[in-house]
Amino acid sequence: MSTTRQISMSAAIREALTTLLREHEEVFLIGEDIGVYGGAFKITRGIVDEFGPERIIDTPISEAGIVSVAAGAALMGSRPIIEIMFMDFMALAFDGIINIAAKWQATYGDEFATPLIIRAPAGGGRNYGPTHSQSFEGLLLNVPNLTICCPSNPADAAGLLLGAYDAATTVIMVEHKTLYARQGPVAERLEPVPIGQGARLRSGSDISLIAYGRHVPAALQAAEILAAEDVQADVIDLRTVKPLDASLILDSLSNTGRGISIEESPVIGGVGAEISAVVMESAFEYLEAPFARLGAAEQIIPCSPALEPACFPSVDSIVVKARELISY
Amino acid sequence: MTDDQLLTAYRTMCRIRAFELRLNELFLQGLVPGTTHLCIGQEACAVGVNMALTTDDMVFSNHRGHGHLLGRGGDPARMLAEIFGHPNGYSGGRGGSQHMAVKDLNFMGTHGITAGTIPLAVGAALNRKIHRQPGVAVVFFGEGAIGEGIFHESLNMAAIWKLPVLFVCENNQYAMSTSHGDISPVANAAERAAAYAMNSRMVDGNDVVATYATTAEARSGVAAGEGPVFIELQTYRISGHSRGDECPYRSREEEAQWAERDPIARLRKRLEDAGQWTAAADTALETQLAVELAEAEEIARES
Questions:
Q1: Is B301 inside a domain boundary?
Q2: What ipTM, to 2 d.p.?
Q3: What is the largest CA-CA distance in chain B?
């Protein structure tokens, strides 16, 4: 087993990007203010010093252009890694994502692949208000041929980037902005995390807590509280929300018979809705209580620190829902 | 253009016209699924531009792309197979008329989203620049594409990074039913380039010689690293926008005026005046193209 060190998710992502740039000359980074400034969240800070502005490309404020231009470069053999400053701004780039990156290879054939890695700081918790706090993984689930990753810790954030490079398809990397400072163990030499594999972080036979991103640490805390009440939670970190690791979800549900999905995107038509459908289709006979969903409320995400927390799942809401299902 | 090139241009333009006319017949007979966008009247644009390019150049097209692909050397049998939805089509029948690409020809795709390929050409040029490879990116789009935000983002990026891109605007006067005058505050599409400090040219796109000469001249500067160039080709879509368009938005007088500037008739007259072409040669070519097309159709049907 390799030795590990404790680093932040920011540092792990930076290291993965640097590794990819060093090992593959066809990789370049492109986005707004990612050069000397280092990106709005300082993830790429310092990288331009090693690779120069030809491979760390600062752009005009043109999200649509960034994604589609990068797709054009990918079509000719480049492997662009895009940063969209806030995931909310990705709405401006949906044509490039939906009509180009997700379609070109599938339509014209394998010689016309446009593999893009699109990183986007996402989600609430920082009081940035309605247009700087959204997380679009639920929305993007509905687009065939997209891969969507939502890491919860430094090792996965770095490993999924390497895994996305290996997968050579279009991957949306949803990076929850409140996790950037989160510390965690990372192998001395970064290891790829295969796309599409979830992880069981805690085993239990009473209830499944299926989460991703910032709700994984919350689910683990909730599991601690529930354990004190003699309820053993099975905690699943999805890591990739598309494709879903259905076998892990079903394995968990078949043991517990009860489950909650916990997501950052709105619950209507979201990740939990998809998980619920998978459970209904394939684990119906195991259920001892209705499957439950927690996620962003059906409203704008308000700026006020007094209002914002009520929009999202929390340790408390997970515990309350779990108790409800246990006593169902 | 040399005498040989002129004859090649003429034959290719006639081949495109014959392809489109036959496709229209097949549509009217209900033998083709979906929709299609014909380029009848715009053949000189496709041929003049393509003949000025090299095999390293990357060509991006749009929804009205049959002429662009035939001008680049596309196989009519595989194009028809694609339009029929057959497995031997260029996209295995998945794409249809609006989605064909041919890697061997560096023909990077017709596409169904207006202006959608403009940034792809910019990205392909960016790739060429980073890796110092030869060739320029060329993208065909209509004047209607200028209404899209991505047009402006793309021109801006190409200009600030001095990328090797030729932006070829075929101004066929109508975005579906909407005339250019109704949607543009500036008279000519080429004027847009000035906002990006980009060189531009305005050409009679129904004159294949002028189109070829301008493209060749612009291409050499673009390939030399002088930055992108915008070419506006003034032309006219003789056919309707797509299947079922009866053209209620334009007058028969206007159509008659443009018919007098038909690019194929003009080139034929030029060739005849120069003693390079005869009525007998024209009849022979017509027969030859009909035979070629019938063969292509048969191959496409059976594929």
A1: no
A2: 0.95
A3: 53
